[in-house]
């Protein structure tokens, strides 16, 4: 039912961190066109400071870095972003802070940038919008499907009244699963230390004693934070070794004596690949080529249910291969054996992941090291066995050093071309919703391949290994408990028959974004009220405008959600300038849909939200 236009509308945004701030920027940009000067109450709910939120708050240790260079971080749209709303350019983090663009800023520096972006977006709102900040937690949302909603806040007896609710909750805590509860119970019985999946910056690490072995399961960015806080954070320092007469210096770690000994392993057994340390010059692979809007439309419009591995992954594989070989032929033709035009024609005609395609690549690219093998990339230690723990340390140090060299050597610029293709693929996969990331596998592979630590962090890891502060466990790590001895035990397929014992276990990874075990009471209540969860535990949303889907697939008319807890999560935390910015497109679409719906509620004459083109167009 339409109400008189003089009645104030109310929009509640839960979460005022980076995603909430990005939505606010798009709301302010689109509001004059779609909502005019109608009165609006805008409520922002977040227990953490607006802008940076929890993860990027300025009050954390400056030892913790971003894993992006300052020039690669922007919160503003540019000419490459395809959106219906106005483009509003702004400075990158490097430009705003006056930083060298190639540096890796600290998280407090990024938090300060986000706070400034938030204040700028808020200042861009017209006087007809009244902003209310609520530094608390939203507990639940209630109300009829087609009526006004009530947002209940911790510590408040009276709920907020909302015409629309946008959830931009960011990364969330989760209650432990059955296995984690078993490990915690074992630790309690034997007086051990068990630290479950968590945000490392928020974890109390004081229980990990100096000099004692600590089993660490997880080798991604959470491990890097752990490594930093337990070494430099406890007074250790790094020095540059002058090296040999050729000048090949190596980093040396000087312990403080307060560090534990970290025994680290994971499924892959290796750290995430280093960030690439050079720019891509010359011709760039034209993307998308084999996995673009037309291919996605064909898959979505086909008969029967889709299977990611059977229907989608072969096209993704071919797309990444296309980027790899396009760059190889363009930049390193001496490492190829046929003309590009001939290869391109046959590559396009060959079926994805087929013997025909394998034979074509083998004939055209003589050196196997120049061929792209995504399965081998995902399982770097598969079939590798070491005879001793010392041999394993030497092998892993050699692997990490080689990765560092490769990721900073333009002779392997195919890696950077594949990185660009991975970003393109991520944007397309979001259109598939539930099947776009089965079991969170793709997101994990993306992070391992394209969102790893800065190169200097891996240099530090090598120095810590040399100093005996870090010991590698290998791949397919298994953790068990020994009731008789009262210890945790870890083994891996890389070193068969060997076990490492410790009285402390750290799960170095973020909590899974699962609705069933989420630490957010609001999301839990939505799930119990009928919101749809994927097999991976993500909140299902309409890929076009972010509206929350119920278990029947119907979009809720008044609930929207954006961010890592949803099926519309973007590939990285922040957008690189001039890359099309898929998160910007999501934010713009959601802001425009929300404003059109608010206008419809405010006008005595019916008005309808625009029918936009697909996000991937």
Q: Could you characterize what this model shows?
A:
- The chain has 617 residues and is α/β, with parallel strands linked by helices.
- It has 3 domains: 256 residues, FAD/NAD(P)-binding domain (3-Layer(bba) Sandwich), CATH 3.50.50.60; 137 residues, FAD/NAD(P)-binding domain (3-Layer(bba) Sandwich), CATH 3.50.50; 132 residues, no CATH class.
- It contains 16 helices and 19 strands.
- A 6-stranded mixed beta sheet has the order 3-2-1-7-19-18, covered by helices on one side.
- A hairpin with an 8-residue loop joins strand 10 and strand 11.
- The protein is globular, with a radius of gyration of 25 Å.
Which short descriptors sum up this protein?
6-stranded mixed sheet; FAD/NAD(P)-binding domain; 3 domains; disordered N terminus; HpyO/CreE_NAD-binding; globular; alpha/beta; 617 residues; 5-stranded parallel sheet; FAD/NAD-bd_sf; L-asp_N-monooxygenase_NS-form; Adenylate cyclase; 16 helices
Work out the number of β strands. 19
Q: Kindly report the spatial arrangement of strands forming the biggest sheet.
A: 3-2-1-7-19-18
Largest sheet: 6 strands, mixed
Structural class: alpha/beta
Radius of gyration: 25 Å
Q: So, CATH architecture of the largest domain?
A: 3-Layer(bba) Sandwich
The CATH class assignment of the largest domain is Alpha Beta
Count of the separate structural domains: 3
Morphology call: globular
Point out poorly predicted stretches: 1-5
Pfam family, one: NAD_binding_9
Protein name: Adenylate cyclase
Region (Disordered): 552-580
Domain FAD-dependent urate hydroxylase HpyO/Asp monooxygenase CreE-like FAD/NAD(P)-binding: 12-171
